[in-house]
Amino acid sequence: MVHAERAALIADLERLDDGQWDRPSLCDGWTVHDVVAHLVDTARTTRLGFVLGLVRARFDFDRQNALGVERERAVSPDGTLERLRRVASRTSTPPAPLDSRLVEEVVHGEDIRRPLGLSRAYPQEAVIRSLRLQARTPASFGGAKDLLTRVRLTATDADLAVGTGSEVEGPVLSLLLAVCGRPVGRDELTGPGVGTLTTPGRVRA
Fold first, then answer.
1. Could you tell me what percent of the chain has a pLDDT over 90?
2. How far is it, in rounded angstroms, from Cα 7 to Cα 119?
3. How far apart, in Å, do the first and last CA atoms of the chain sit?
4. Separation CA 95–CA 74 (nearest Å)
5. Which of 53, 60, 54, 12 is nearest to 32 (CA)?
6. Residue among 172, 177, 157 nearest 107 (CA)
7. What is the pLDDT of residues 92-140, one digit of tens each?
8. How does residue 205 score in pLDDT terms, banded at 50, 70 and 90?
């Protein structure tokens, strides 16, 4: 599923012009080009490489991600896209659950696609597994376990409900994006817990 998402994103990126690569993504401070470079970096990451990189970044996850973008972003979009093609079939992973790779591909895919007006019909299983992982991952590791003690998410397009507290309903992809701190449309989510779920300031690469 990870390889399929990388291939689908590559197909979308091949149609972009340089101006679109420079557009702001849903990740604060990152352009589309930056997000693609980040995906190249995470695809190359091994368990040992992650630990060494974290030490070099003085145990600062955001600094580690920024250094990865700087390292993998080529001078031109074509160069970065070629780097993504080269790593698209890799199976390496940092010391994290395998489904974290799905979270990376789905959420960052939307970080790129939504600002450009592109859409993808993601396989439902990939999105459900991504949301379930975020639901059991602490905020200190980029997850939403703490948040879901205050809101209950119910998917309107899948047999999925997680969390406790004020109800929020919506498509599973919209729920995933919201727990990852991404902005979603006002018409995508409903329920008394929407305000809690969509509080700004939780975006993390």
1. 79
2. 15
3. 20
4. 26
5. 12
6. 177
7. 998 889 999 999 999 999 999 999 999 999 999 999 999 999 999 998 8
8. low
Q: Is the distance from CB of 94 to CB of 50 less than 8 angstroms?
A: yes
**Backbone Cα Rg of the chain:** 16
**Amino acid at the residue 201:** G
Angstrom distances, CA of residue 147 to CA of 56, 80, 96, 111, 166? 30, 35, 20, 21, 11
Each residue of 162-182: pLDDT tens digit? Answer: 999 999 999 999 999 999 999
Please give the order of strands across the beta sheet that includes 166-170.
161-163, 151-155, 166-170
Distances in Å between the Cα of 205 and the Cα atoms of 53, 125, 137, 171 are: 16, 22, 15, 22
Given a contact cutoff of 8 angstroms between Cβ atoms, the answer to whether 64 and 54 are in contact is yes
Contact between 65 and 205 under an 8 Å Cβ cutoff? The reply is yes
Q: What dihedral angle (degrees, nearest 10) is formed by the CA atoms of 73, 98, 146, 172?
A: 90
Q: What is the pTM of this model?
A: 0.92
Residue 112 and residue 32 in contact, taking contact as beta carbons nearer than 8 Å: yes
